[in-house]
Amino acid sequence: MPGAIVLSGTSATKQAVLENAPHASIIYLASHIIQDSDVPYVAFVPLATAESQPPDDSYLEISDIRGADLSSCRLAVLSGCGSGRGYTSTIANCPSLGEVLVDAGVQAVVQTYTEVLDGDAETLMHDFLELLQRGEEPVRALATAQRRAHRAGRDPSAWAPYSITLGTLEKEGDWGAVILSGGSPPKTDRSP
Could you give the CA distance from residue 159 to residue 165 in angstroms, rounded to a whole number? Predict the structure, then answer.
């Protein structure tokens, strides 16, 4: 995406994410999301470890997100497995990473409810991002990308796990982005 700040590999540290995310209008996170049903309040995104920092400092946790002011962010895309899956039991309810982003002020969050293969995620998200760049609003862009995948005969596991959660959609502005990536962001026709 034009004007994007890409944090990838060793530059994708927790500190860099927390410094850049509050200024982003779009956050795209292509990473694993670790959840443990035996410890429902422990969900995190493993990021790069900064030099001289202990490995635990590389985990972007729910509390980190809740402590951030993300009210400038129009859209967050969590293209990791189960990013929209919270945890509910008779003992505790834990929000999903997507719900926490909405609580932190993000206006809309695209997330998944089950595991998604990397290649399937890349294909669907490529189509979704191209539609966004053409001016489609996030809900329509996701629905269109999913319909296209369905019509192309792709297995439902490649496109059906994605949904969008809305917070507020009242702000105007450009779609500048910070891309937070555990891997390579999907290529678009406008990518360098």
Answer: 16
CA dist 39 and 17 (Å) reads: 25
Which residue has 């009242």 as its token pair? Answer: 170
Of 175, 120, 129, 172, the residue nearest 149 (C-alpha): 120
> Block means of pLDDT (10 residues each) for the chain, length 192 residues?
83 89 90 71 79 81 90 89 61 75 92 84 93 92 95 92 78 45 43 40
Element (H, E) at 192: none
Give residue 136's pLDDT: 92
Judging by DSSP bridges, how do beta strands 26-30 and 75-78 pair with one another? parallel
Predicted local distance difference test score (pLDDT) of residue 90? 54
Residue 136 is encoded by which pair of tokens? Answer: 């489609």
Composition of the chain by helix, strand, coil, percent to 5: 30, 20, 45
Distance CA 163, CA 53 (A): 35
What pTM was estimated for this model as a whole? 0.79
Per-residue tokens: 94: 């834990």
Q: Is the dihedral of CA 177, 8, 180, 120 positive or negative?
A: positive
CB 120 within 8 A of CB 159: yes
Per-residue pLDDT at 130 = 95
